[in-house]
Each structure stands twice: as structure tokens, then as C-alpha cells.
Amino acid sequence: MTSAPPRLVVSVPAGHLADDLQPLPEGVELIEWEMDAPAPRDHIDIVVPPYMSASVILPRLEGVGTRLVQGQSIGYEGIAEHLPAGHTFANAASVHETSTAELAVTLALAAQRSLPRFVRAQDAHRWEQDFSPSLADRRIMLLGYGGVGTAIAARLAGFEADVVPVASRARVEDGIPVHGVDELPELLGTTEILIASLPGGEATRHIIDDSVLSALPDGALVVNVGRGTLIDTDALVDHLRRGRLRAALDVMEPEPLPEDHPLWSLPGALIVPHVGGASSAMQPRITRLVRRQIDRMLAGEPR
Could you read off the pLDDT of 154-186 as tens digits, one per residue? Predict the structure, then answer.
């Protein structure tokens, strides 16, 4: 007697995700596929590619039938160029917002309270006290007010700062006035900290250019947890080199940052290597997301 074929075939990278998804509903077959070899099946209902490798692995879906490609990253940029036609792609909304918002606030606090300088003093065994700028009473612009931007705003709520959300269009969201990006020229002159969390793509490429950087007051801090392409790197390097601005960056252009790039050693620059979503919060959230997609597909609901 032969067993009934599975109702749903799901592929995930080898590792924790395969274990964490257990137990699976009846009729669901889980296979591990790193996408570094030919597909183990001609048709896989849900494919979860490895994290942070879309440009290399998505072309390998050519000739494979799927119902959903469930990414593990928050963005969409680069997907259209690399995903073969005929596939439906979903980003990992709900997975990275918490960790990315945490890092945005961490970067702002670390830069404001001079933590890089104090760590260097610790390495040299120097007791080096000084006053530092606070988050309290600062005017903080959130350039981007989607999932990450609103999560950053929620975490800044207790810091007694003046938070100014800016999005693609002006609106009132949950009782909070949100400015449109067209209002940037009148807002930048009083912005002491600019935190960018916009997605990448042509629409936002170099939205923080020399004109935006020049409009910020002397000593302002630029934090980027969105995509490196949001900032004109050459313009930022110029402002940092002159000591006019400071920067705390999780993402940058180019990436990875070359060993000889000036951003590594410029005064006022704090660099971390694109780790906004890389925390212990990611694994349980991606597991819950994939499980929801499985349940929806089994129930015939929209993905």
C-alpha cells in the first residue's frame, strides 16, 4: 500500500529552522535545500532560501515550480533582477523590525555618549572622562516610517526626545503627525540626529546626498539602518573628514566595506557590519512566519 502524496512540500536551509518548524501539520513534507545544488524536486510549494544571499541563489529556481518563495530578509531590492519569472516572492516583514530598531537606538546612543572613544580608552587602560551629548532633548528625524521606523519611534518614546517622523507622504498615523519627504528642506536645519530606515531601490538611492547633509546643523549625527544606497558615501566622507557631521552606520555603500575605505578611520564614524537583523530575535520570528505561511497555504488563504 502506497502512502498518500504530501499536500504541501516545503524546503528550508539546513539547520535550526528545519528543527524549529516541528511538529508540522499532517500532509506537509519538509526537505532541506541549501540551494547550492540542483533542486531535489521539480515542484516545491514553499521555498525558503538561505539568509542574505538572494543574488547568488535565486537564479537557481529556474525551472522549479513554486507557489511561494519566502525570503528571510526585510527588503525587496535586487529580487526582481535575480528571481526567474513565474515565482511569487514575499519578504520577511515582522521578522527584523525589532532587532533593527534596537540597533538603531544602540548606534545613536553609542555615538552620542562617546562609547567608541571610551572603549578605545579602555583598550589603552586610560581613565578618560568627558561630557557627551545626550538623546534627551535632541530633535531626532526618522527618515522612513514603515515597520522599522515605527519600531524605532516606539523605542525612543522614553528618551524625552523630540521625534519627527518623515515618510513618502504626509499623513496622521495613530494620532502622530508624519511629515512628507517634500518637507525635508524645512526640517533638516533643526535636526540633530537623522535616523534612516528607508528601503533600497532607485526611488531612495542617495536620498541623503550632499544637499541634505549640508542642510544639517554642525555636529549632527547620521544613523543608517536601512540600506547603504540611501547615502551618497562620497558626500558623507567629505562631511566627516571636515569634522562637520558624525555617522553611525549599520549599512553602507559599498558593502562589505573595503579594508582601505576611509569610513573605517574617519573621526566621528561608527561602523558595524550590517547586523541589524542578526540577533536572537530572528530565528523564532522567521519560524513563526514560515509556519503561518504553511498554515495559510493549507487553508487556501492568501499568502
Answer: 999 999 999 999 999 999 999 999 999 999 999
Measured between alpha carbons, how far is 244 from 268 in angstroms, rounded to an integer? 9
71 and 180 assigned to the same domain? no
The residues of the chain scoring below 50 in pLDDT are 1-2
Q: Which domain holds residue 25?
A: 8-95+280-299
Q: Which residues contact 125 (CB under 8 A, 6 or more apart)?
A: none
**Residue 2, in any domain of the structure:** no
Q: Are both 259 and 113 inside the same structural domain?
A: yes
pLDDT score at 163: 98
Side-chain half-sphere CA neighbours of 300 within 13 A: 0
Residues 132 and 167 in one domain: yes
Element (H, E) at 91: none
* Strand-pair category, 162-167 with 139-143: parallel
> In the structure, how many helices (H) and strands (E) does the chain have?
10, 13
